[in-house]
């Protein structure tokens, strides 16, 4: 069975592109925007820390001293140390989850989107349509002849995929999000990869979906930009 720390390792590699020294280069999805200056993935078994390749050696040495052996315990001190030499723009934190085995999809109302039917996305999800090559597998639920709920791969590697889930406001409260997410996760698992899901600490609706799906929280992300 895969450990929480191993899941966090998969997670950070899905989220960001790295250089040969394991430093963060960019977000792992088009248009490959800037990665945070620091990523901390805290689990019960320990933490994974990754620095941006934009940080100089002296800054990293300062941060290593502050972080020490327990990275998740001192976010305030880390932010203070980084802000001495850098103007910070954002601190993001939230839970990270993994899907259980959901490969039985017989219950699902979700429709798989392929190159043959991807025109379904164009009206309601134009960005997913444009980047479809990178977003598979992708599933939607159709209501009133339009796709109202979608789950696709936001970012992925050969070992894991990170979910992107959205339901239009007028169609929430009908369990569409949970249903379409299960269909997506099942397809990811059938293809031999691990299905991951993360969200911000302020996104209570997304956390509610995670509870409905009975996802297991394996850690907490901290992104400092």
From TrEMBL:
Pfam families assigned to the protein according to its UniProt record, in alphabetical order: GNAT_acetyltran
Signal peptide (UniProt feature, chain positions): none
EC nos: 2.3.1.-
GO MF term set: acyltransferase activity
Domain N-acetyltransferase: 100-225
Keywords: Acyltransferase, Transferase
Designated name of the protein: GNAT family N-acetyltransferase
Source species: Cytobacillus pseudoceanisediminis
Lineage, uppermost ranks: Bacteria, Bacillati, Bacillota, Bacilli, Bacillales
């Amino acid at each position: 069975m895969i450990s929480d720390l191993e899941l966090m390792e998969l997670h950070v590699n899905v989220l960001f592109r790295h250089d040969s020294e394991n430093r963060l280069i960019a977000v792992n999805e088009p248009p490959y925007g800037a990665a945070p200056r620091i990523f901390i993935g805290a689990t019960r078994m320990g933490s994974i820390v990754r620095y941006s390749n934009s940080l100089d050696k002296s800054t990293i040495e300062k941060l290593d001293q502050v972080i020490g052996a327990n990275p998740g315990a001192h976010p305030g001190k880390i932010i203070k140390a980084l802000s001495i030499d850098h103007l910070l723009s954002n601190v993001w934190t939230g839970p990270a989850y993994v899907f259980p085995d959901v490969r039985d999809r017989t219950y699902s109302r979700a429709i798989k989107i392929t190159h043959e039917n991807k025109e379904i996305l164009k009206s309601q999800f134009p960005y997913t349509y444009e980047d479809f090559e990178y977003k598979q597998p992708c599933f939607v639920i159709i209501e009133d002849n339009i796709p109202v709920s979608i789950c696709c791969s936001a970012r992925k590697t050969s070992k894991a995929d990170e979910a992107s889930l959205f339901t239009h406001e007028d169609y929430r409260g009908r369990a569409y999000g949970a249903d379409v997410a299960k269909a997506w996760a099942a397809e990811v698992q059938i293809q031999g990869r691990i299905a991951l899901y993360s969200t911000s600490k302020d996104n209570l609706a997304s956390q509610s979906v995670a509870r409905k799906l009975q996802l297991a929280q394996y850690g907490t992300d901290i992104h400092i930009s």
